[in-house]
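Request from the bench team (R.T.):
"We need a structural guess for the complex before ordering more zinc ion. Sequence and SMILES attached. Just send the tokens back."

Command: build protein-zinc ion structure.
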Amino acid sequence: MTMDLAKDCYGFRCSDSSDFVNMDGCFVSKEILPFLNKLKDRLALDGFALRLESGYRPFDRQLSIWNRKASGELKLLDAQGNPMERPADEEQLMYAILTWSALPGASRHHLGSDLDVVDGNSCPEGYEVQLTPAECDGMFAPFHKNLSALMDAGEAFGFSRVFVPGRGKIQPEMWHIAHLPTSRKRLETFSLSKLRTIYEKTDIACKSALLDNLERLADDYIYPYFI
Ligand SMILES: [Zn+2]
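Reply to R.T.: structure attached below.
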């Protein structure tokens, strides 16, 4: 596996893959592994099988998602999760992508401390997980209820949800959890001016809209999640 971390502006660096382990086909930072295993074991006591759908994601991967959504190669979804028309206006297109996709360079998946999780035990054979609110209210509802109870009781080994209602402009994502003691350390090195320089040098869709609105975007889509 190759990982170009040169462009990650969270300042999280590793020279090779030795900082990660592969779990469920996802990259997990070794630093959070002991806590993740404890959480898995705790959930297993209640009959759940925590399974990863996403872990560490480098800049280039997020950039590829961003650019493919802009080009129409990947479908755009509205806030309700329904497919939507691709706006012709660059700024509107940027906001449409932001509904469900993080800014490249500022995705919490760059941190190595954040994961998208489901319950493998309640996932039907062959079902392709979408990571939608409907799944969290449906087949994964008992799993998330249990996980919420552990978090509320301070028994989730440092894991917490980040994208919750009333915080910032990113849609709530129940499936996204973060090991906060680890992410807090890694967020300290974030620099918006570095992100601006990266965008200036990168072939990124909606570039002028991003550069023109970067401070406001940070206030709505980045800083509220520095928790
Ligand atoms: Zn996520």
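Two things stood out. Strands lie at 20-23, 26-29, 50-54, 114-119, 159-161, 176-179. Confidence is low (pLDDT under 50) at residues 1-7.
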